[in-house]
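Repro case for the chain-ordering regression, as requested:
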Amino acid sequence: MKSEILYPGAFPMVRVELADGEHIKAESGAMVACSPTIDIESKMEGGFLGALSRKFLTGEKFFFQTLRASRGAGEVLLAPTVPGEIVVLDLDGINEYMVQKDGFLAGADGVTIDSQMQSMSRGLLGGEGFFILKMSGKGMLLLNSFGAVHKIELKPGQEYIVDNSHLVAWSTTTTYNIEKATSGWVASFTSGEGFVCRFRGPGLVFIQSRNPGGFGAWVRQFIPVSE
Amino acid sequence: MTASTPNALCFGEEFPANGTPCLVHVEGHGLTMTFPSDREAGESRSESVPFSELTVSAGGLDHDQLVVTWSAQTGQRTLYLKNPDVIRAFRQAAPGHLTKPLERAAKQVRQVRQRRRIVWSIAGGALLASVLGLWFGSDLLVGLAVDRIPVGWERKLGESAYHDFLAQHDVVKDGPSVAAVKEMIHRLAGQIPDNPYAFDVTVVKSDVVNAFALPGGYIIVFTGLMKKAESPEEVAGVLAHELNHVLQRHGLERIVKQLGFVAVVSIALGNPPGLGGVMKQLGIELMTLKFGRAQETEADVTGLQLLYRARIDPSGMITFFQRLAEKDEGRVEWLSTHPMSIARADRLKTQLAELPKQSTEPFTFEWAKVRASLDTPGGVP
Ligand SMILES: [Zn+2]
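-- result from build under test --
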């Protein structure tokens, strides 16, 4: 399986080449185009209850699509719904990542997707729901963001504070606490939530340069309100 | 598992921030890490550290990994162990000074796992209960979900359907008929303690014999129904019944039942935005909402009590229901959602008989004049 990011920047698309018999799991709706040798199957990752819990508790789509090169080698073009960067991670079987519900675009078949429950306080205060996706296994993982992706590298014990709504993915070797932003943080962080995550290394934290909620609020002010 | 697959992540000054996968071997004197080479051809590199230099703790996102640290010549080294086989081997081989911290770490892992199991079983149980509950139509769960819907949403839901409906119909803006139904609603609403609904009533010009109330307290009365009524008490009877559908939140109960547990789960988890979308789709379907038999009985019974408290003669309600059912003329749509039965009339009669006799107060308008105004086109835009 080979991937190439086309048109890097705000409106990228990713081309994934599949050898005969290979397949890739994609967020439903991510497929833009594909070779005629590719079959599209809708599959409930994690079984019925897993899919249900994802659907209702993370708001994530019920199905992932499986794109399978069942009739010979071919390629698929995938793109996210929102404008923003696509990041390719190569899972080595040891490194695992937690991914925010909207951050998943596609994964090779060796990648395992689990819905994981955040601890009560994290889920409640974080405003991101109780479930996030845990990516483990081996193979290519495609993440998408709203805006550009910025990678923060944390050494053991190193700390960094991130506005919750800008989070995309983070290593499971990190730990984090949700903290109520002080008034100073509220001024500089625009989420309006007033909560930030204090991450502690080692590991990687991927953040997005734009905040979907903030953008939505910005757009709404231009929509005339009836009445 | 092949012996050469990395089973741990090693962190250090010269390693990348997400660590370097390595293969950890537990030996008699300590640990040996083998780092696979970057290139296929290159040879792998090994490092050993004696137990005496190690400190251990629990770490990682869920505090379920064993974190081993020591100082190497190149700086601080941190090893994240997750593989249960390696952790077990480590615990068996580790000397005395590590036993206590290891126990502490193991205890922490157990606690995290246990806590997660508990949370999962609660969440799973709740999900299962809602699935099963709705499968068997458990009114208790529906009731619980409905209780969590604020009146504000209910109003929004009813309001959009109300405006949609009125936009498609001839509204009687003012005149005796509007004044009459407003007076009825005012009399009835005045007898409802702690009423959270500001009832809004509109008369619609139509020969259809119907009246209904939308969630949130929006009431529509058709002129056809008013023409059929021989006294204002008869109309007030229908209104009292409809008002009680609103007060008992029957419309919401139906919606929750029809939407199934999607709505229940999202309401239970406090996810109003998702529900708003579904509610909008319901739109005009609300008009044809058919209530269950138990809900109709409840609306009848509480409607009769409401009439009584408002000193409006409740026998008008009963005679009107009966007359509507007997005469088979025109489109009596109200009957399609409110099938009349002998049992229903009898129940109302029995109930009325049980109430102590009291004098009634007439309305301030003349019903004959109100009815006469219905035939003139006055007040219609
Ligand atoms: Zn009814």
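Ordering looks correct now. Chain A has one domain: 2-218.
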